[in-house]
């Protein structure tokens, strides 16, 4: 068989196969439900899983199925997308409270020293398998960026050895929450502005030995709070968001500065914006 004949044969086979595949695609085509198509068009396509479904397609299918799946579960799209989905479904969007990720650790390089020079895999989970981690505080952020790697919105970065969240970029998808081996990251309503930035439950002496900014369970926050919103349990301060009024008194009085008052940052940003 000549080369020309072989080329012609392959071309013919390719054309026949193409025609058959085209015909098969029409015969076996699955018609998508128009409601699903309309719902899917309103979703951002991030496929982050923050809604609790495998992705935007899965979420749209669930809503289209008419099984009562809420239309306000897209954390990336927020209230705007919820309103659009509700319009397609002919229902009410309900309330959707903005949430953001928060890292309960202030173990910077200055506050929590490294135990040893780590030259292994750049992973918090991997480092944790070696003597509990590379930081002196076993509860703290390892600073190797597992959370950074999974964030699709560039909303979290390791700064000075500890993960820090950009609240303006965070969509509350929860990817960083799942990635942190020390379970330091949680989703909190954006309206919560006074938060304990520590997770150490050791006694005061042990805690101070491993981190300069660790909560020591002194209960100064308890005594300061006029709303019964702060209590110390297992040597660590906890704030009840239902009682907290974001006054920031506990943050001001905390001798270790481990209670963060984000309200001050919000006021500063607002002042800058109007300047």
Topology:
Elements: H1 3-27, H2 34-42, H3 56-64, H4 78-89, E1 99-103, H5 124-128, H6 146-150, E2 156-159, E3 162-165, H7 175-179, E4 185-189, E5 194-196, H8 204-210, H9 220-224, E6 230-233, E7 236-239, H10 249-253, E8 259-261, H11 262-274
Helix pairs in contact: 2-3, 2-4
Describe this structure in words.
The protein has 275 residues and is an alpha+beta fold. It has 3 domains: 34-89, Electron transport complex subunit B, putative Fe-S cluster (3-methyladenine DNA Glycosylase II, Chain A, domain 3); 99-188, Alpha-Beta Plaits (2-Layer Sandwich), CATH 3.30.70; 191-275, 2-Layer Sandwich (Alpha-Beta Plaits), CATH 3.30.70. Helices cover 36% and strands 12% of the residues. The chain has helices at residues 3-27, 34-42, 56-64, 78-89, 124-128, 146-150, 175-179, 204-210, 220-224, 249-253, 262-274, and strands at residues 99-103, 156-159, 162-165, 185-189, 194-196, 230-233, 236-239, 259-261. Strands 1-4 form a two-stranded antiparallel ribbon. Strands 2-3 form a two-stranded antiparallel ribbon. The radius of gyration is 26 Å and the shape is flat.
């Amino acid at each position: 068989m000549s080369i020309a004949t072989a080329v012609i044969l392959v071309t013919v086979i390719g054309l026949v196969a193409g025609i058959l595949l085209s015909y098969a695609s029409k015969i076996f085509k699955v018609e998508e439900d128009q409601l699903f198509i309309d719902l899917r068009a309103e979703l951002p396509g991030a496929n982050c899983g923050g809604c609790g479904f495998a992705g935007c397609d899965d979420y749209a299918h669930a809503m289209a199925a008419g099984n009562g799946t809420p239309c306000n579960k897209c954390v990336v799209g927020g209230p705007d997308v919820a309103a659009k989905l509700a319009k397609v479904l002919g229902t009410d969007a309900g309330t959707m409270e903005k949430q953001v990720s928060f890292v309960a650790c202030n173990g910077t390089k200055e506050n929590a020293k490294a135990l040893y020079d780590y030259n292994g895999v750049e992973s918090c989970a991997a480092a944790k398998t070696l003597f509990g981690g590379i930081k002196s505080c076993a509860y703290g952020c390892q600073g190797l960026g597992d959370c950074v790697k999974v964030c699709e919105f560039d909303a979290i970065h390791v700064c000075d050895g500890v993960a820090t969240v950009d609240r303006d970029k965070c969509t509350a998808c929860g990817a960083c929450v799942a990635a942190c081996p020390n379970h330091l990251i949680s989703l909190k309503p954006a309206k919560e502005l006074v938060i304990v930035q520590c997770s150490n439950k050791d006694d005061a002496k042990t805690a101070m030995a491993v981190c300069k900014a660790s909560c020591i369970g002194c209960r100064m926050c308890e005594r300061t709070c006029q709303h019964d919103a702060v209590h110390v349990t297992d040597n660590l301060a906890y704030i009840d968001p239902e009682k907290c009024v974001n006054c920031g008194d506990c943050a001001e009085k905390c001798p270790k500065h481990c209670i963060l008052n984000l309200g001050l940052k919000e006021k500063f940003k607002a002042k800058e914006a109007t300047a």
